[in-house]
Structures
1.
Amino acid sequence: MAKVSLIAKLQTDPEKSEEVEAALAATCSAAEEEGGLEIYSAHKDSGEEGIYWFFELYTDGDALGVHGQGDGMKAAMSALGSLLTAPPTINIASPVAAKGLQL
C-alpha cells in the first residue's frame, strides 16, 4: 500500500501564539500513541502571523483512518481546535519522491 501524506494549514490568533504552540506540542506528544503515523510535525509560518502548518506521513490509508481516535490525541486535538480561528485547510496526497523519507 502507498504511504499517505497530509498537509494542514491552521489559522490562529497571533496574540495566542504561546498557547497555540503549547497545544501543538501536546498533539505531537499524543501522536506517539499512533503506530501507523511516521511523521507528525508542526511548523510556524515564516511570512504570516498566526498561521501554522502540519506535515503528517502515514504508512497507509488505514493508518490515516484511525488518526485521532486515541484518548490522548482526542484531548490534545480538542484543546488545539479551540484555538483555531477558522476550520483547518487539509490536503491529502501520496508522496512520490523525497530525501530523508523511505517511500
2.
Amino acid sequence: MSDFQFLHPAGWKPAKGYSNGVAATGRQIAVAGQIGWTAEQKLVGDDFVAQIEQALKNIVAVLAEGGAGPQHITRLNWYITDKPAYVARQREIGEAYRRVIGRHFPAMTLLVVGLLEEGAKVEIEATAVVP
C-alpha cells in the first residue's frame, strides 16, 4: 500500500478502529450503500451483526468487479438504525469486520438514521482507490 498515507495529526490520541484521514493516489471506485442482503436481494435475517457482515461482503464483491480489494478502501460511511445495538455489540461487529475487511481501517463515519429498505438495520457505502 505504498500509494496510501494514513493521516493522524501529531498529539491526537489514537483513533479506535478507523483512521482520521487517508490520502491515496490512483483510480477511484465509489460503492453505493450496501445493506445486508444477498445477491437475490433478500435480507440475511434480522440479526444486526449478520446484516453488517453481509453488507461488508457486498462491498468486497463490488470492489472485486473493479479490480480492487478491501485493502484499497479509503473511506466507509456507515448508516445504522439502532445505536444501542451498535454499542452493545461492538466486539461482534469488530470480529465480523476483520473477517471480511481484515485489519485495514480507513476513514469512517457512523450515523444513526432511518433506512428505506424495510428490515434493513445497516447500510454502508465505500470509497476505494486502486493504485
3.
Amino acid sequence: MNRPFSKKIASGFTLLEVLIALAILAILMVSAIKITADNIKNLWYLENKTLAIIVASNHAVQLRLDKDKPEKLDGWDEMAGRRWYWQINRSFSNIKGLWLYRIEVFLEGDKEPLVSLFSDVNKI
C-alpha cells in the first residue's frame, strides 16, 4: 500500500546549521591562537626579566666581594645565548658605612633597562 502523504525522515544537518557551526569554530580557533600568542610573548618577557635579575644579582654579589668599590662600571655578559649590557653607578647611602649601588641591566639592542637593582655595599 502506497502512502502518498508519508514524510521521509531527514537525517543530517542543513547547510545553514553547518555554516553556523563552522563560523563558531573559526571564532573559537582565532581566540585560542591569540591567547597562545600572548602567552608566548609574556613567557619571553618573563624569561628575559628573570635572566636580567640574575645578571644584576651576580654583579651585586661581586661588588660585595671585591675590595675595590668603583664609582662607575659597565660591561657585557652572556647568559642563555643572549648578550646583556650592565651599568653600575655608586651613590651615597642613608646608612653610615655603606655605598648605594644601582645596577641596570639591558638586553642587547634595548634602550630601556629590563632591571634596576639597588644594593647596599660596605665601604670597606
4.
Amino acid sequence: MALLATRRFLSKDEIFERVAGYTGKRDAVERMFERDKDDLRALGIIIQVKPQDIFFEDEVGYRILEDDYELKLGELTPSELSYLSLAAKIWRNQLFSQSGDLALQKLEALGGTALTEDFGHGTLSLENETPLFPSLWEAISNLRNISFTYRSRNVSQRRISPYGLTLWKGSWYLVGLDLEKKEIRVFKVSRITSDIKFESKPEAFAIPEDFRIEDHLLMLAPEPTTRFLARVRVGTCQSLRSRGRVSGVDGEWDRIEISLGNNWLEQLLWFGPDLVLEEPHEKVQELVQVLRSKL
C-alpha cells in the first residue's frame, strides 16, 4: 500500500520508516524487506525499481504503479459483491482499518452495500474481531516466538513459534510449533485468554519450506457421515429420533433416516433389538458380521 500510494520512488529507509513491522537490527530488517518483495512478486505484483541518483545507481527507489496493480473487475454479480464486501469487513476489523473502510466505500459505489447471502457456519458473526490480531501478525511477520494462556480442556501456558494465521469457518486459527511439545499445533484464537507476550527478538526461527497451513487444518474438517435408514420400535431410541427424520410404519415400528459418523456401529448396537438397520446394504452386512462374531 505504501508503494502504491506514493507519487515518487521511495528509498529503503523511507519504506522502513513508513511501513509497520520493520524493527530490529539492520541485517534482520533487510532480510524482511527482501522476503516481502519476493512475496509481492509471487502474487504477480510488479515493483518498479529506479536509481535515486543518476551518479549512484546503488541507491535505488521502489514504487508500484497503479496501472500495473489495478485489477479490472468488470461487471460483478450481487453474489460476487457480497463476498468482496465480506472480505473488506474482515480486513477493516483487523490491522488495515483505514484501507478496509476505503475498500467498503468503493464497493458501495459499485452497489455492494449489504451482505445478502447466507454464508453459513457462523461466518457473519465474525469471531475474527480479536484484539490479539496485531500482535499475532507482528509475531508471524517478524518470526518472533510468543507465549500466551490457552483454554481448551485445561488452562495452560503455551510457548510457540507462530507459522501462520488463517480464517476457517468464521474463526481465526493460529498454527505454529509448540516449543514444549516439539510438534506443530493448532490454536483457536478465541481460546487465547491473555495478551500475546513476545519471547524473542525478530528472526528467532525459520518456517519450514514445506509448511502449508491447510495441511494442519484438515483435522478441523467435519467428520464424514453416512446416511442410514433403520426401523426403530415405537417409544424407543429417543437419542436417534432427536437427530434424524422419523416416519411411521405401523403400530410397532417407526422408520428413521439419520446421518452418522465413523462410530456408527457403536451407536446402533447400543439399541439392541429395538433397532433394525435397513440401509446402506454394505453397513448392514458389516453389522451382521459383528453380531455373528459375538455369538
